[in-house]
Write a structure and sequence with these properties.
Layout (H helix, E strand, L loop, with lengths): L4 E5 L9 E5 L1 E7 L4 E7 L3 E6 L2 E5 L3 H7 L2 H7 L4 E6 L4 H6 L7 E6 L2 H10 L1 H8 L4 E5 L2 H7 L4 E7 L13 H9 L1 E10 L7 H14 L2 E8 L7 E8 L9 H10 L10 H6 L5 H12 L1
This protein binds S-adenosylmethionine.
Length: about 290
């Protein structure tokens, strides 16, 4: 009888906290040139992808993060045609973006080709609809390099990054956000994977502090994602138009209907609106960032 293998998330080691998963089967494990990648099966969460000890996506609860990181900025914008994803290796974000038929081109800039490659085999539910879509353009590059140089202009930028460690660290810098601002059109909206404020308040303070120097509206919205342990997860919000975060539910519902009213399992017009109502401790973190 082989001993049960456990894999720990080590992202919060310095806080003295670990979450561990019982491993039914390791499906893929590789030290790529950029990061350590392990994909395994867990009886509660299904397939679990970890990069450098940080949980990235699980088949059981991926829909929450993927829906909230895409439908919120795209429906808030209202006229998005060009979308950029920085990171996004497993293509879960891309799959949700491409449900919006008005999107004319989706550019995804992923630093590690290995993540996309193995996702073709292990997350076909994401990569299948995406890689066959003529609107999808995959660029293998460091997101920082791309946003500094591209001639393209984007209505929505989605920073679907790892945490601020290893290759992901640069995606939390002022220089990166300024370069994203450079390649966004008028009325643009940028959203970012910005961690769990209960554990990582400084990450949110830093990002929102950068946003407020570059955009008229800087803040975050929240969603509860079981495997991003620690309570609400913050999605950074940087927008040209402050009104875009406060659209009435009726307008959001109209735009969702016009987009084709595709099935969702977490996002609704009401949840979209409510996501910007922050628990007081998170609102205080954001206010601290805004105060500079
Ligand atoms: N949390 C997400 C989810 O639930 O789907 C997953 C995030 S996705 C796996 C993060 C991606 O960012 C990884 O594929 C990683 O290779 C990529 N990445 C990290 N640093 C990057 C950089 N500087 N430029 C582009 N991609 C980067």
């Amino acid at each position: 009888m082989t001993a049960q293998r456990w894999i720990a998330e080590t992202l919060f080691d310095e806080l003295g906290f670990r979450m561990t998963f019982a491993v039914e089967r390791v499906l893929y494990e590789l030290a790529t040139e950029h990061q350590h990648l392990v994909l395994f099966e867990n009886k509660l969460f299904g397939k679990v992808l970890m990069l450098d000890g940080a949980t990235q996506v699980t088949t059981r609860d991926e829909f929450i993060y993927h829906e909230m990181m895409t439908h919120v900025p795209i429906l808030a914008h209202g006229r998005a045609r060009e979308v950029l994803i920085v990171g996004g290796g497993d293509c879960g974000i891309a799959e949700e973006v491409l449900k919006h038929k008005a999107i004319e081109r989706l550019t995804q800039v992923e630093i590690d080709a290995s993540v996309v490659e193995f996702s073709k085999e292990h997350f076909p539910e994401f990569t299948g609809p995406v890689l066959g879509d003529p609107r999808f353009d995959l660029v293998i590059d460091d997101g920082m390099n791309f946003v500094e140089r591209t001639e393209r202009r984007f209505d929505v930028v989605i920073v679907d990054s790892t945490d601020p460690q290893g290759p992901g660290a640069v995606l939390f810098t002022y220089e990166f956000y300024a370069a994203c601002r450079r390649c966004m059109g008028a009325g643009g909206i940028m959203v970012t994977q910005n961690g769990v404020p209960f554990f990582q308040p400084d990450e949110l303070i830093s990002s929102v502090g950068h946003f407020r120097k570059l955009f008229a509206d800087a803040g975050c919205y929240v969603a509860a994602i079981p495997t991003y342990v620690g309570g609400h997860m913050a999605m950074g919000w940087a927008a040209d138009d402050p009104a875009s975060r406060a659209l009435p539910v009726a307008i959001l519902a109209e735009r969702y209907a016009a987009a084709g009213k595709f099935p969702t399992r977490y996002w609704t017009p009401e949840v979209h609106r409510a996501a910007f109502a922050l628990p007081r401790f998170i609102a205080e973190i954001v206010e601290k960032a805004r105060a500079g």
